[in-house]
Amino acid sequence: MRMKTEQLDDTETETVIPLQDINKIECQFENDKSKPGSHDDTLEHPRPAFIGNVSSFIDELKNNMATRHSALLSVCVCLAYMVQGWSKGQLGPAFLDLLVISNTDLKRGSGFMTSYFAGRLVGAILAGAIHPKMNRYLIFVVAMVVNAIAVAAIPWCILYELMMTAHALHGISGGVLDVAVTSEGVSIWGDSDRGRSYFQILCAAFAVSGIFAPMATAPFLLPTDTTGVSWNSTNTSLPVNMILSNNQSEHSDNATMAIQETSRLYIAYSMSAGLTVIVTFPFLILFLKSAARSSIITVKKHVKSKFIGNRHPSLKCFQFLNAMIFSAVFSTIDLTFGGYLTVFCVRYLDWKKIHGAILTSLILFSQLVGRIFGAFAVRALSSHALLMLSTVVCTLGFVGLAICAAVRFHTGIWISVCVIGVPLGVLWPGFVSWTNTNLIPVTGKVSSSMFISAFTGAMISPLFLGFMMETSMMWFCYINFGESCIMLTNALIMVWYTKYSSEKDSKPGIALVNRT
User: Fold this and answer.
1) Domain annotation for the chain: domains and CATH numbers
2) Degrees (nearest 5) of the Cα angle 13, 17, 23?
3) At the N or C end, where does the chain have fewer CB atoms within 10 A?
């Protein structure tokens, strides 16, 4: 038995209910309608309430099958985002070793990050095209399997071209997974206090794995004195402290052989691939169950991707463009700040790589603190107020980082990184929630647009940043500060759009949808 609704838009959601539970759900509907204040006259058809004003969330889990399934799906999506955070957390500490493994310098090695972010861009575009047409659980399965294969292959790519290809493939799968996680995460609980809090928690799960990834990677890195890679592209890119043959033609072969014998980075990356495969299994089970069409009812609901409110169309388009610029600049800061922080600390501040890896973990720990704070703050502060506060603090943190680096005040570096990390943790989930509430519902295609702009910025930034850091490592601080000022300007425009526009919002964001 199957029920279908007319397709209203290219984005759809599904509610999948086993036949044996239909009677139970009908009884639940009748009981809910019989309770005082439980019937919402604004709904055309009654459905289980996700946000219970009468019973607690624990009671809902016990008594409401739809809530139980949403909670389980929430956990699965969190796990998928955690493996993303783990692989991202490895990128910064492992970057110097990847330069040595592939026998290249910083200028050419910046192409690894560019290739990775170009892949993320392609993945976001691909996800926007397939998300409305493909089973969403299958999207998770395919993306994570490809991601695991790419991650496992990276430490073995001793050729520069292979390393570029592996990072591109890693990026494509990551881009698809980003869109899938974001659209699924927003729609599980909808535009509500619970939904906004969950999205902060979802991003916190990303940070949790990112905290431990650098620490888990550090024991497998080459010692600092064997990775003295020249940053000048006109010089040799081989480790300067290696004892090599006097024959220049044998220089590269001997260095590569020594690297292959001592590098253990493949162990850390194999751990990442294994975690990704493990997390794939819950989505594979969900896909197989959803594919059993002979014993289910499928109810399709559709969400229109239309701008919210009665403001002038040109103003809405301008704000959408502003939001995409914010997405691009934030992604540039978030993804390249951690990626180049270890290089900056080792080459400019003369730190050991283990200290750079710990500092990278500190960024992610600070982001975790920010997201835990955000999970509670969204219930007390409006989304635009939270965005404004976070961008101001982030900008001040980059000012402090530049000053402390200039005077080589190492304690100040640690403090500044914490000050930067906390608001960075709040910004992305706060931005997505603001967009979903005030601008346009975050469906699969809107999520894809966000990540297309995000990874366009992140794709361009590594080459520019790597080039400028060859002239002076302090450009790492200057460029990040300039980007934070752009982001602050974007946030000011968002506040103006929300508070001082003459028109008011006329409808909410994504409705609460039962996702099974």
Assistant:
1) 68-227+266-281+301-499 (1.20.1250.20)
2) 135
3) N
